[in-house]
Design a protein that fits this description.
alpha/beta; two-stranded antiparallel sheet; 9 strands; about 35% helix; globular
Length: about 325
């Protein structure tokens, strides 16, 4: 009876000297630099899988799995299984614990966090992971010798802040193709949003960029099927507006993940690969994001709010 009674009791809280009581600030200097970079990146990126961590930091999947498990033991990350009714198989993912996020923000901004509104709720984890699959595809296919690939990827959490919450793309990608730079707002559509929600997204993009009708902006809906693509194009045509410099495009997810630079986008009538999307002026030739990118501390600036400075024509539309 006593054994049954004890098992029914809540587990003891961590001892003051236990691993799970360690705060990020206390162990920061003892972490390898690559793990410091990963935690800093997660302030904006929100979520990571072992596969993506191996691509950005660890190089080997087994190393990523082992090191992420260690960060969970230290109480710096929380691991969980992410699935949904539409993605029942799901995946195991990791996020910063609440205490770690507070500590890492203090380390990132020692003089205080920039004045900005509170964080907005993020998309469901399964949606964030689907967007990061596109990011991973661009990273794998980046080629500095050919000078093509992404040079910045601004994640959803950061985009929500810089556009005041009015516009919330899943990501903003800066893509380099030789001497050309392309700005692509990424909308990863899983087919779960109703038509009126998609229509409101389209209206907001037009509203934000109406002041600069000639600015070449690409809004790319990455969808799972041709049928969903037709739905997007019908909504764009039904709700016309002044978007002479703006293109609403669709591409199929599976093709994008296989070849993100060669995959075909369509506006409902014309088709063109990512390489041929409308270019924008950047004023500089930024480095291409490639595997192992987060090994460099300075590289994080291309993957957070500082990445917007690499797209100065868009930066004037932020709040």
């Amino acid at each position: 009876m006593s054994a049954t009674e004890n098992r029914a009791q809540p587990g003891p809280s961590p001892k003051p000297d236990s691993l799970r009581s360690v705060r990020a600030g206390a162990v920061w200097t003892g972490l390898p630099a690559r793990e410091q970079h990963l935690l800093l990146w997660l302030l904006g990126a929100d979520i990571v899988t072992a596969e993506l961590a191996s691509l950005l930091v660890y190089r080997q999947l087994r190393t990523a799995q082992r090191r992420l498990a260690r960060l969970v033991e230290l109480g710096l990350l929380r691991g969980f299984w992410s699935a949904s009714a539409h993605r029942p198989r799901g995946r195991y993912a990791y996020v910063l614990t609440r205490a770690t996020r507070i500590d890492v923000e203090r380390l990132a901004w020692p003089h205080g966090r920039p004045d900005r509104p509170p964080d907005l709720p993020s998309s469901p984890p399964i949606h964030e992971l689907a967007t990061l699959d596109l990011f991973a595809a661009f990273v794998r296919h980046g080629d500095p010798l050919l000078r093509e690939g992404i040079f910045t990827w601004v994640p959803e959490r950061v985009c929500a802040h810089v556009f005041g919450g009015f516009l919330r793309p899943d990501a903003l990608a800066g893509i380099r193709v030789g001497d050309r730079a392309i700005a692509l707002f990424v909308e990863r559509d899983l087919g779960t949003e109703r038509g009126e929600v998609l229509a409101e997204k389209i209206r907001r993009y037009r509203s934000v960029f109406a002041r600069m009708p000639d600015l070449p902006v690409n809004v790319g809906f990455v969808v799972d099927s041709e049928r969903r693509a037709r739905t997007v194009h019908e909504l764009v045509s039904q709700r016309g507006g002044p978007d002479s410099g703006m293109s609403f495009l669709t591409a199929i997810d599976e093709r994008m993940r296989r070849d993100p630079l060669g995959a075909t986008w369509t506006d409902g009538s014309r088709q063109r690969p990512t390489r041929d999307l409308m270019p924008i002026s950047t004023g500089a030739s930024w480095p291409i994001v490639t595997p192992g990118y987060l090994s460099d501390a300075e590289a994080i600036s291309a993957l957070d709010d500082r990445g917007l400075s690499m797209l100065p024509e868009l930066q004037r539309h932020t709040r």
